[in-house]
Amino acid sequence: MDTINIGLFGLGTVGSGFYKVINMAHNAHARIAGICVRNLNKQRDITLEPGILTNNPDDILCNPEINLIVEVIDDAEQAFSIVKRALEKGIPVVSGNKAMIATHLPQLIELQRKYNTALLYDASSCGSIPVIRNLEEYYDNDLLLEVKGILNGSSNYILSQVFDHGQNYRHALCKAQELGFAETDPSFDIKGFDSLFKLVIITVHALGVYVEPQRVFTFGIDSIHDTDIEYAREKNVKIKLVAQVFKTCANKFTMFVMPELVRPERYIYSVDDEYNGVVIRGRCYDRQFMFGKGAGALPTASSILSDVMARRHNYKYEYKKMAFSPRPEYTTDVDLKIYCSFSSTRIDELLPFREITEKYISQNRNYITGYISLQQLIKNRQLLDAPDVFIANIETPRF
Ligand code: HSE
Prior knowledge:
The chain is built from 14 helices and 17 strands. The protein has helices spanning about 15-25, 55-60, 75-90, 100-115, 130-135, 155-165, 170-180, 185-190, 195-205, 225-235, 295-310, 345-350, 375-380, 380-385, and strands at about 5-10, 30-35, 55, 70, 95, 120, 145-150, 215-220, 240-250, 250-260, 275-280, 285-295, 330, 335-340, 355-360, 365-375, 390-395. Strands 7, 8, 9, 10, 11, 12, 13, 14, 15, 16 and 17 form an eleven-stranded mixed beta sheet that branches. The structure holds L-homoserine (HSE).
C-alpha cells in the first residue's frame, strides 16, 4: 500500500490535534512529510521530527514527495490562495476552513473539475459528525425537506454553562477559548458567522444550491440578557443557536441562523456543551438525528483523518445535486414567529410585525412575540443590531 505523504498547513489547535491523531492511526499508512507554519519559533506542546517545519509554502507545494495537502490555517484568504495553488497543481486537499470554503465554494468546485482533483472538507462542518459526506451520498435524492441543527460548539458550550450551571456569560466564553473550541476571533462563534459558513456548505450538499453568506440572515447570542434566560426557564425551553435550511414549498427553500427557543421534545434540546446535533428531515422518513462533538482539537482532527483516508479510495464530492433540474430557489419570503426582547430600542413600535401574540413592557426590560417575515428582519437588520436587542426563533409547523 502506497504511503500518503501529507503536507500540513497550520499547527494551531486543529493542526496539532491532527499531528497527534495521525500518530495514533497506525493502520493509516499516512505520514506528515512537512508542516508550514507562520511562526517557526512558537512554543508547542508536541514533539516534532527535526527539520519538519518550514515557513515557506513552496517547500510544501513544490515537494514532489507530497501527494496530499491538509490545510487548517486560520486566515481564510491565505488558506484560499494555498488551496487554489495546490488544486492547480492537481494535488488533492483536505481542509477544515469553513470561512474559506463557504466564501469561495463555486470557484473551488470549478478548480476541482478543471484540474481533476479533489477538495474534501467534512471537518469544516460539525467537527466530528460526518454530515457532508452523508448528505452527499446517502441523501442523494430530492426528498430532503430540512437540515437543522446546532453547528457551533463554542456558543452551545457557553449557553449550556449559562443555562445549566449558572455561569456568567463572559466567563463561559473565556473557558470555550481555553478549551480550544472557539475561533481565534470568538465573535465568529457568538455572532453566528461560524454557523452561517457551515450552513452555506451544508446547503450545497443538501439541496445543490450555493447561497452567498452575505444573503443569509444571521443573528448570534452576544446580546442575550439575563431576562431572556429567565423567560426561557419559565416557558420550560432552552435557548440554542440554531442554523437551518428548509423547503418552504416544492421548489423554494429558505435558510437562516438565529437563536431558537427549543422545546424539551426536540432532539437538539439535549445537545449540550461543545456537542453539535443535526436533524435531517425528509418526505418519507420524517426526522433523523446526528450527534457528536462539534469542536475541539481531536474530534475535528479525526474528521480530517477520515477525509485523508477517503482519498485513499480516490473519493471526491461529485456535487450531484447541483445538476438537479430544476433546483429549488432561495427565498426570504417566509413568515417566522419570533421572540424579541429589548430595553431602550422600541422594537414594538419600529419592527413591522404582521401579528403580535404576546407583549410585556416594564421599566427594565420588554419583550414581544409575534409573526414577522424574514425579509423584514433582513430589512431592519440595523435596528436589530442595537446592543439591547435580542431575538430568538419560535418553531412553527412546516411544509
Ligand atoms: N469554533 C468552532 C465551534 C470550531 O465552536 O464550533 C469548530 O468548527
